Amino acid sequence: MAEFHRSFRIQILLSIFGVFLILALSTAYILVCSQRLQKISENSFKQERFIKSLQEDLEALQTPLMEYLSTRSSNALASILIDTQLLRQKIPGRVITGDKADLKERELYSLVFNYLNLAEQAMEEKRGRNISAYTMLSEEMTGLMGYINNEIDAISTVRFRNQLDAYEQFLAESGTIQLWNFLFLISVSLFVIVLLFLSISHFTNPLLRLSAMAQELSAGNFGISDMEAGVNEEMDRVIKAFNNMKNDIRSNIEEIRWQENIKQEYMREKMRNMKMEGLVRHMEIYALQAQMNPHFLFNTINTGMQLAIVEGADRTGEYMDYMARLFRHIIRNKEIIVPLRHEIQGLDYFFYILKVRFPSDLNLTLECDQTLLDTCKVPVSILQPLVENCVIHAFRAASGGRDSRAPAADTGEPPAAGAGTGEKTRNVAVRVFREEQYLVLSVEDNGRGMDRELVERLLHPQSLDESSVSRVMGLENVIQRLYFFYPGDMDVVRIKTGPEGTAVIISIDTEKEPCLAF
């Protein structure tokens, strides 16, 4: 039943029926008012018409009466009897008020009765063949008829005068009725207009809201709330379909955006992995070049030859054995992430060679928690390049002040003992320890430090392209590899520098796996 009343068609039919009913009631009211005016007008002239009809009936009675008195016709007699009987019945027997016109009207009725009585006496005398009697009665009737006509004219004159006052009252009453009719029509018209406006608003407001929401959707605003139903059955269907369409479009757009974000993330990851792969490959080439370039090999062999001359074959053999171990360690390994033991073992080999090459003023220290060697893993070749960077750059004399540590300055030949530093011992300390869930690797020297701008550039690389890959060496190589292996962790590597030296600190979160997807 509730859905029946909520139907759009039913509501339209009810609205039309309501307007029709109001118009019908207003028409009926106007009809009643018109009949009231007509009744007032009719009451004003009713008595005048009655007296006029009474006069006409008396005049009509004269014709058969004169015919009967002249010829004694039976038809005329029958007509007379009928007419007189009708006249007697027509005269009302009502109570007379004190009005002058009513008194004269009462006298008129008496004269009519006298006239009818004289007519009956004349017919009796006619039947008795008393010529003188009915002739005298006929003359008396003629005189009485004249007097009746005069009375009727007098009554009409009096009533006409009275009707003038009644006519003014009639006009006032008519004006009042017309005014009320006008006000009623205005009220009904306003009510109908308001009813139509409310009905139209009830039907069009949902359409306007739908139009506004459609404009919001066309502007890309899909976060608007659903439109509430409850207007009518047909409109509720449209609103429900519109809400479903809006929600489906919003879901599809969110799905497309999500897929686009996934696609962009995939492309960024792919680009990052491609850069990482290129960096790792260049790192491998660099590692071989850095460890086996002609300068390094020449200096190493030259040192071996000098040892062979000065000390004999035993020391030289040991030296060359460590050289072979280091080269084998570098070439044999093909993994990117290796156990910490593997990295420390290679560093031990490298330390032996450096101590042989620089026995007097190069102090190398390695402190490592032995329990971490087989439980922790690190990216391959991250400690050796840092130690080599310290040996080559940290103790080099520079005419412009602090060390720029530019890769182009690397010739593979370390500075001479005490060069630019007086008799100061060159210390390089490597420490490996655990701090909560972090594996900390520290390479520290007591050299002359680094420029702040260079530290900032190394820790915040702008991009990696073909023009810069060939120059990524040593410390720069290690930093960028760490950023690739541990994305999002900008504190994975830190550089502390000052006049007393430089410390490169690597903090690897052991609870997170390195990124190797490429």
Q: Can you offer a commentary on this structure?
A:
- The chain is α+β, with helices and mostly antiparallel strands.
- The protein folds into 2 domains: 2-214, de novo design (two linked rop proteins) (Up-down Bundle), CATH 1.20.1440; 268-509, Heat Shock Protein 90.
- It contains 13 helices and 7 strands.
- The strands form 2 sheets. It has a 5-stranded mixed β-sheet with strand order 2-4-5-7-6.
- The longest helix is centred in the middle third of the chain and has 88 residues, at 131-218.
- The chain is rod-shaped and about 210 Å long.
- It starts with a helix and ends in a 9-residue tail after the last strand.
Task: List the topology elements.
Layout: H1 2-5, H2 8-71, H3 74-90, H4 100-127, H5 131-218, H6 233-292, H7 294-310, H8 313-332, E1 337-339, H9 340-357, E2 362-368, E3 377-379, H10 384-394, E4 426-435, E5 438-445, H11 452-459, H12 466-469, H13 474-485, E6 493-498, E7 501-509
Parallel strand pairs: 2-4
Antiparallel strand pairs: 1-3, 4-5, 5-7, 6-7
